[in-house]
Amino acid sequence: MHDLLIRDALLLDGRGSAPRRGDLAVAGGLIREVGAASGGARETIDAGGLALMPGIIDNHTHYDAQLTWDPLASPSPALGVTTALIGNCGFTIAPCRARDRERVMRNLTQVEGMSLEVLRQGIRWDFESLPEYLDVLERRGAALNVAAFVGHSSLRTYVMGEEATRRSARQDEVAAMKALLVDGLRAGAVGFATSTSPAHNGEGGVPMPSRLADDEEMGTLVGALGEAGRGVFMLTKGGHTTIEFLESLAARSGRPVVVAALLHNSTNPQSVFRDLDAIRAANERGRRLLGAVSCCPLSMDFTLRSPYTFEGMDAWRPALGKQGSALTDVLADPAFRSGIRAELARPAHFRLFNGEWDKVHVVESARGELEQRSVAELARAAGSDPLDFMLDLALEERLETVFSALLLNSDEAAVARLLKHPNSLVSLSDAGAHLTFFNDAGFGLHLLGHWVRRLGVLALEQAAWRLTGQPAEVFGIRGRGALAPGYFADLLLFDPARVDRGPKRRVFDLPGSQARLTTDAIGVHGVWVNGERIVGADGVLATERLPGKLLRDFA
Fold first, then answer.
1. Sheet holding 360-364, edge to edge
2. Interatomic CA distance for residues 197 and 261, integer angstroms
3. pLDDT digits (tens, 9 = 90+) for 251-308
C-alpha cells in the first residue's frame, strides 16, 4: 500500500527528458514507482494533466537567521521550494562568539537589508560553533530541506574579532580559519562561501570581513575543500576578482566553483558574457566552474534612509552609517552630489545602479501626483538634474519617500542568453534577505511562467532541470532533484498554463510585527517535502509537522 498516488500527471523528471503522462507513487517518504503505478494508496490525487516535477532547489538563500525563529522559511515552500541552501556569500551567523553577536547583526542589517530589531528579537542564540548551529537547526526542524555553507566572514570575525574588517590575516589566523572550515565540513556543511563584491559592506560602510582576505588566505581555505574531498566553493565576486584566479582555485582544490552574481548591465552589456565565456573556457580545460545567473529583473524598493541601490558606490561612502541631520546634511551637500554624478559617468565592471533614471520611479510620496512616474520624467518637467530631483524630494519629505529602481537584468534578450548558457546556474533569489527591498523567492515560478509559458525561451523540461536536477548535481545533493524510484519525494504539482508568481505585497509578520515584501504563488496545486504535503492549492497547509531534513551528506 502506497502512502500517496498521483495519477495522470505530466511528469517532468528533472533530468531534461521529454514530458510524459503517467503516475507517481510514494511510500515512506520515497518515490516508489514512476510511470505506471500499481496497487492502492492511502491518498490518491487525480492530477488531470497537471505538471509534476521535483521540488525546486533554491541554491542562493539567506535564511540563516530566519530559520531560528521561522521553521517554515516563509515564503519559499508556498512558491515550490523544497530545498534551500543557506550561508551564501559567506554571511552566516555561526560560528559566532557571544561578544560578536551585536556586530554580526549590525553587519547583516547593512549588507543583507535586514532589520536590526527583527534580528535582535528573532535570533535564538543557543549555539556558538557551526556544528552546534547545524545541530540546533536539525532539532528544531524546518518545512523544507536545508543545506548550509561555512561562511568566510563569520570565520574571520570568530578568529580575528574587530580586526577582521581592517587587515589581512596572519598565517596562524588563516590556519585557525581552516580548522574551523574543516570542522564545518565534517559536521555536514555543503561547502565554503565568500564575497569580494564592493557592494557588500557592513555597518557604517565598512567592508564585510571576507573582502579583506588576500589571495593566499583564499587559496588556503578553498584548498581545504580539496583536502576534505567534498564541498562546493561559492563566491560573489567583485570586478577585481578574475575568472582566471577562480579557475586556479578550482584547479588547486579539484572542487566545483559557483561564481555569483552574473547579472546583465545595460550600460556595460558585454561584461557578463565575457565572464561566462571565460567560465566556458575553464570548463573546456577540465575545471568545474558555473556562473550563477538570475531569471528575474533586479528591482528594489528603497528610501534614502537606507538606499542599498547606491550604497556600493565609492562616492556614497560619506552617507553610509549616518542618521538624522548628519545624513540629511550629506545628501544636501553639492560636493557629495557631484561625486555621485562623476562616478556614474565612469564605466564599472559591476555596479547596481548605473544612472538609468528612467528606471527609477516614485512609489510612495506625500505628493500623490508624483507616484508611478520616473525620476527622469519628473526631473525633466521640473528642469532639474535627476539626482538632485530625487534627493531634494526625499529631503523635502523627511526621507520617507519610497522609490523603486529597476537595476539589472532588464534586457530580456540578454537574460535569455544567460539562461541558455551551458555553464550558467539559475540562482540568486536571495530569499531571506533584503526583505524590505525586493522578494525573488518565487524565482522558480517566474522561470516556469515567464520564460517558459510566455516567452518560450526554455522548454518546460529544460526549466525543470535548471531548477532541480542541475543544482542537485552541482552541489552533490543525494537522492533529490529527480522523479526516480528511490529518490526522496520532494514534489511540485502545478498548472503549466497558469504557473507564475504574483505581484509583490507588504506584510507585517516578522518579529516585532516588522514589515517584509512577499509574493504569492499562482497555479501551484501542491508541494510535498519527503513525501509529506505542506502546500495545497490555497497555500501553506495548517500543520505542525516539519518534514524537512538538514542535509549533511553530499556527493
1. 298-302, 402-408, 360-364
2. 9
3. 999 999 999 999 999 888 999 999 999 999 999 999 999 999 999 999 999 999 989 8
Cell of 291: 556562473
Question: Cell 579557475, residue?
Answer: 247
- Interatomic CA distance for residues 337 and 332, integer angstroms: 8
Quick check: bond before 261 cis, omega within 30? yes
Please report which residue ranges of 411-459 form alpha helices under DSSP H.
Answer: 412-420, 443-446
Q: What is the pTM of this model?
A: 0.95
* Helix extents (H) in 383-528: 386-396, 412-420, 443-446, 460-467, 469-474
Extract the C-alpha cell encoding 391.
Answer: 534627493
CB contact at 8 A, 31 and 486:
yes
Residues of the chain with pLDDT under 50: none
Q: Which helix (H) or strand (E) holds 225?
A: helix 215-228
DSSP track, 483-534: --TTSB--EEEE-TTT-EE---EEEEEEGGGEEEEE--EESEEEEEETTEEE
Cell numbers standing for residue 194: 565568500
Instruction: Compute the distance between CA of residue 41 and CA of residue 507 in angstroms, rounded to an integer.
Output: 39
* Per-residue cell: 94: 555561526
DSSP single-letter state for residue 310: T
Q: How far apart are CA 361 and CA 374, in angstroms?
A: 4
The β-bridge partners of 41 are 2
Q: Exposure pattern of 422-445 as b/e (b: 16+ CB <10 Å)? A: ebbbbbbbbbbbbbbbbbbbbbbb
**Taking Cα atoms as reference points, which of 307, 274, 264 lies closest to residue 412?**
264
- Bridge-based pairing of strands 191-195 and 232-236 is parallel
Contacts with 14 (C-beta within 8 Å, 6 or more apart), sequence order: 53, 54, 464, 465, 468, 469, 472, 481, 482, 483
Give the C-alpha separation, 81 to 453, whole Å.
19
Question: Tell me, what amino acid is at 476?
Answer: G
CB 165 within 8 A of CB 207: yes
